[in-house]
Amino acid sequence: MKPIALADWLQQWLNTGSGEPAYRQLYRLLRQAILDGRLPSGVRLPSSRELARDLSIARNTVIQVYEQLAIEGYVHAASGKGTFVEDTSQDTVDSASSAAWGDHAQATGESNRGLSMRGRRLMDRLGFSRRQYGAFMAGLPDVAEFPAKAWLRIQNKHWRSSPGRLLSYAAAGGYPPLRQAISAYLNSSRSVNSKAEQVVVTTGIHQALDVATRLLCEIGDTVWIEDPSYWGLRNLLISSGLNVEPIPVDGEGIRPSQRDLRRPPRLIVVTPSHQYPLGMVMSLARRRMLLDYARKHGCWIVEDDYDSDFRYESRPLPSLQGLDSAGQVLYVGSFSKTMYPGLRIGYMVVPERIAPAFASAVAELYREGQMMTQSVTAEFVREGYLSSHVRRVRNLYAQRRALLIDAIRSHYQDSLDIIGDEAGLHLVLALPDHVDDVEICRQAFDRGIMVRPLSDYYLIKPRMRRGLLLGYAQVQQEQIGPAFRILASVLDAHIAEGQHPAPGVSAPAGRT
């Protein structure tokens, strides 16, 4: 399709009087034209100025649509040449999402045949790992430290008492005593304002976000996420048919531009207490700005509080939800970091006016069970075992964090920055721009070391920083030094390669 023919075709279908925003109509039409082959691979799209003129719409609308299509892999922009349609006929798994840490077999066009476009886009961005334990896998607690004896004692008591009532589907919203225990725990430890009726038990943060998007968003709605951000939630949003808008972060957290603020999203997903993966804390001024903006524009905020129980140089920070007076924040968390990942119990604290709908939706869509596990968890939390366990392992993780920092400093002194080490279960080792962090992860994996590349957490590549996520919580103290020496042997070769360019070749300006 020639550019002028494209404009004519779009003009036939755009309906400015329909009530549907021009952005959403144009995005939907261009995406469909690419998918059905009307816009074949390699064709150049009209410039944003040209298309805006031909369609009598704002140029910013066209720019926004082109950017969204580029983020989702439908088009790519070539500097000075224009915007071109990508080849979507054969999707393969992105190398930075699979071979980067050797976690799963390469998907092929054959294995993806028959999947929907949403399904193929999900396959393009896989980030899971077939290996889930070892140095320096990020985001994992030390499950060996979990107080299993206390858990089994409670579990046996519940099995002996009246197991019949706990072997059916869960009540809407979850086991009532667990909802009460979670509410009390969050109110005291995280300054969350909640009643038990506002707590909805889920299988984790992924499910909480899934039900939130189903109940609060239409397909095509815009969602703000932090850039960089956690690949799991990012992929969930993209595969749900939402327009994901990556917003940069700075030292105070998410930082929307004036241009971003002029286009309010439906949903804003943030990690204010410990930004993932960089680790900064959202400032009070930025929190107030975000809450005020959400109130004025009717946006919903999802506060992902995934590991804020583990702060090493100060007390855990109050939640964003605790500052929310308008009822715009949904607070989500889980016990994966504080207890053990396989438990698969999470929670969301929902504004009171929509809490019944969320409880009903979880029961209707997922037919939740685990009543026995929920009952044991309720007593475990209520009787103080969780608080005691968190205090104990926080001290242990602080020791391991210090050993890892010592190992880094011993080898690199101050030549490499350490980022985001004040809290959580991982830190980020920043790398020079010339270093390929994805390739380092591949080579380290082959030597038994699991690290993740920081660059893979960015959606907007010009913002991309190079680095490695190093988890330390589940690495035994005596293993930290030897494991880091193996990683350093891989890393040194890549750093040296950039410092000593081939004869006759100058090193790129601004790089070390």
UniProtKB/TrEMBL annotation:
Gene3D superfamilies hit by this protein: Type I PLP-dependent aspartate aminotransferase-like (Major domain) (3.40.640.10), Winged helix-like DNA-binding domain superfamily/Winged helix DNA-binding domain (1.10.10.10)
Alphabetically ordered keywords of this record: DNA-binding, Pyridoxal phosphate, Transcription, Transcription regulation
GO MF annotation terms: DNA binding; DNA-binding transcription factor activity; pyridoxal phosphate binding
Keyword Protease in record: no
Domain HTH gntR-type: from-to ranges: 20-88
Family matches, as SMART domains: HTH_GNTR
Family, similarity comment: In the C-terminal section; belongs to the class-I pyridoxal-phosphate-dependent aminotransferase family.
Protein name: Transcriptional regulator, GntR family
Organism: Pollutimonas bauzanensis
Lineage per the UniProt record: Bacteria, Pseudomonadati, Pseudomonadota, Betaproteobacteria, Burkholderiales
